[in-house]
Write a structure and sequence with these properties.
alpha+beta, five-stranded mixed β-sheet, binds adenosine-5'-diphosphate, binds magnesium ion
Length: 340
């Protein structure tokens, strides 16, 4: 006879278990929020592998003063209003959980100024009821989220953190995955006051190759095969490691409508496409699939690493054909040059 509703902080801490595994997951959620807000520049500052400080500053559309408190509460999102919206989702976020979860397991402050507001305001949530305090602040158009002392109140989680170096490596990896898909955005990453990465916006093929080289290695970028295929409303574009490039790479990136996903389907298609080349290693790829959002379900897991295609077979065969057609072109070229 002791059923009780959990206090908000505790409910959020439980939810945090699913999305806030380590500093890198905080960085992922916050950077995705910045991108959802239309930012063209995102600066990430990390201290001590993210356990001391994670600061994300963007030039996105910002949050109005009277919505700051809402942004920090659970199940509050500007991105979905109905089940129909969810079924056609294109934004990264939709669960309205990240800020609430993170602020229940760290000291979070959110400072923001939308373009149409003359001053900036800062919000913090604290205590078991997660009461929000709003204070005046100084900030250009956009938002800054500070996450200080991650897991300070959840010691069991904190103990699971690895060394600063390892945690930072995870952050760096996550940023790579985001930066390779969003070449239009300028990203910087700083660790303990030192600028570690600078990804400048890529508007030309040369700049794009530069970013590809920064992330997948210069060799990969120089030799990679470009592909761009469209069929029946499906589009696949990106780069594929050349069969003549024998470097072992772990650059295997697959995006569905801009969202990085792990999917066996694409690995399978790549393997199958490379079947007739005698290659010992898993070929690298950066592939972007664009598909009608109604044809894919992204709400499979809280961290959104997985998607489900309604027509799995069709998507697989489309990818396979797209890959085969670029690979065919190059094998024709080799046969030609051998013939001459
Ligand atoms: P979700 O992204 O699933 O909507 P979040 O908890 O991550 O949930 O964010 C809650 C809301 O706060 C978002 O829907 C958005 O309206 C607002 N928000 C969060 N971060 C930003 C940001 N960097 N810029 C503008 N708005 C933001
Ligand atoms: Mg979000």
């Amino acid at each position: 006879m002791a059923i009780q509703i959990l206090p908000p902080q505790l409910a959020n801490q439980i939810a945090a278990g699913e999305v806030v595994e380590r500093p890198a997951s905080v960085v992922k959620e916050l950077v995705e929020n910045s991108l959802d807000a239309g930012a063209t520049r995102v600066d990430i500052e990390i201290d001590k592998g993210g356990s001391k400080l994670i600061r994300i500053r963007d030039n996105g559309k910002g949050i109005a003063k009277d919505e700051l408190a809402l942004a920090l509460s659970r199940h509050a999102t500007s991105k979905v209003h109905s089940l129909d919206d969810l079924e056609a989702i294109l934004s990264f976020g939709f669960r309205g959980e990240a800020l609430a979860s993170i602020s229940s397991v760290a000291r979070l402050s959110l400072t923001s100024k939308p373009a149409e507001q003359s001053e900036a305001w800062q919000a913090n949530a604290a205590g078991s009821q997660m009461d929000v305090k709003i204070t005046p602040a100084a900030h250009p158009k956009g938002s800054t989220i500070d996450v200080v002392d991650l897991f300070f109140n959840t010691p069991a989680r904190r103990r699971f953190l690895k060394s600063d170096k390892t945690e930072f490596t995870h952050i760096d990896e996550w940023l790579k995955r985001i930066a390779i898909a969003r070449t239009d955005v300028h990203f910087t990453l700083t660790h303990n006051g030192k600028l570690v990465r600078q990804y400048r916006p890529a508007n030309t093929e040369i700049q794009y190759k530069q970013r590809l080289g920064q992330i997948c290695g210069r060799g990969f970028a120089e030799q990679a095969l470009h592909l761009s295929c469209e069929h029946d409303g499906l589009t696949l574009s990106g780069y594929l490691q050349s069969p003549s490039d024998t470097h072992v790479t772990d650059s295997c990136y697959f995006y569905v409508n801009g969202r990085l996903v792990r999917d066996r389907l694409v690995n399978h298609a790549v393997k199958q496409a490379f079947g007739r080349f005698n290659i010992q290693h898993q070929p690298g790829y950066v592939l972007m699939l664009e598909i009608d959002p109604h044809q894919v379900d992204v709400n499979v897991h809280p961290a959104k690493h997985e998607v489900r295609f309604h027509q799995n077979r069709l998507v697989h065969d489309f990818i396979l054909q797209a890959l085969q057609s670029v690979l065919e072109q190059i094998s024709e070229l080799t046969i030609e040059s051998e013939g001459h």
